[in-house]
Amino acid sequence: MQMNNHKLTRNLYMVPYAVWILLFVIAPILLVIYYSFIDIQGNFSFANYEKFFTPVYLKMTLSSFWYAFLITLFSLLVAYPTAYLLTKTKHKQLWLLLIIVPSWINLLLKAYAFIGIFGTYGVANSFLEVIGIGTQQLLFTDFSFIFVSVYIFIPFMILPIFNAIDTINPVLLDAARDLGASKWDTFRRVVFPLTMNGVKSGIQIVFIPALSLFMLTRLIAGNRVITLGTAIEQHFLVTQDWGMGATIAVFLIIAMFLIMFLTSGFRKRGA
C-alpha cells in the first residue's frame, strides 16, 4: 500500500514536467515540421526540402558547421587552461563567479560594446595605432565574429570543465606522482581523461547554440557570415517564406539532436 502511494505521488510530480515537455518542446517541433511541408503559396509540398539540397543551402550548412566548430575549438582552447588554473587558486569560487557574471549581461548590449571596441575609432584600433600597425578593418570580419562569439560562450565552456577538474580525487594525482609520472604525463593520462565528461558537456553547450547564431552575424559580422540561424530569421521575418524557414529549422533540430546523441554516447563510454 505504501509503495502504491509512493508511486502515485511520483506520477503526480511527473505531470507538470510532462505537460511542459508536451507544450513547449514536442508541440513546437511538430509545428515546425508541419510548416516545413507548406510552400510559399500555402500548399502542401516537398519543394522546400528539394530546395534545401541545392548548392546554396548546402554551402550555408557547411559554413554554419565550420564557424560553430571554430567557435567551439577556440572556446575550449581558452576555457580548459583557465578552468585548470582556477581550481588551483585560493578563492576559486570567487574567480569563477567573476567569469560567469558577464554572461548575465544582455547579449545585445555586449554586441554593441564590441562594435565600439572594434570600430574605426575604437579601443582596438587606437592600440594598433600606438604600436605602429595603424588602423585596420576589424569590425564586419570573420575575426570579429569569431572573437566576440568565443567571448560570449567561454563561461559556458569553463563551468563544466571546472566542475570536472575540481571533483578529481587528489589521491589519484599523488599516486601518479609516486609512480614516477611527470606533470605532463599526469595531466595526459590522469587529469584529462577524468575531465572528458566536462569537455564533452562544454562542447555540447557551445556547439549547438553556435550553429544557430544570427544576431552577431548582423551586428558584428555585417552579414558577411551567413549561418542557418541567419537564414531562418530572413525567411520568417523578411521574405515571409515560413515553409523554407521551418525546413531549415528542421535540419537544424536534427543536427542538434545528433550532436546531443553523439556527446551523450561519448560520455557514457567514458564514464
Automatic annotation (TrEMBL):
Stretch forming the signal peptide: none
Pfam families: BPD_transp_1 (PF00528)
Keyword Cytoplasm carried by entry: no
TM spans (from-to): 12-37, 65-87, 94-123, 143-162, 202-222, 242-262
InterPro entries: MetI-like, MetI-like_sf
Domain ABC transmembrane type-1 stretches: 61-263
GO cellular component, one term: plasma membrane
Subcellular location: Cell membrane
Origin: domain of life: Bacteria
Keyword tags: Cell membrane, Membrane, Transmembrane, Transmembrane helix, Transport
SUPFAM superfamilies: MetI-like (SSF161098)
GO BP term, pick one: transmembrane transport
UniProt cross-references to CDD domains, sorted A to Z: TM_PBP2
Similarity-based family: Belongs to the binding-protein-dependent transport system permease family. CysTW subfamily.
Family matches, as PANTHER family: INNER MEMBRANE ABC TRANSPORTER PERMEASE PROTEIN YDCU-RELATED, INNER MEMBRANE ABC TRANSPORTER PERMEASE PROTEIN YDCU-RELATED-RELATED
Protein name listed in UniProt: ABC transporter permease
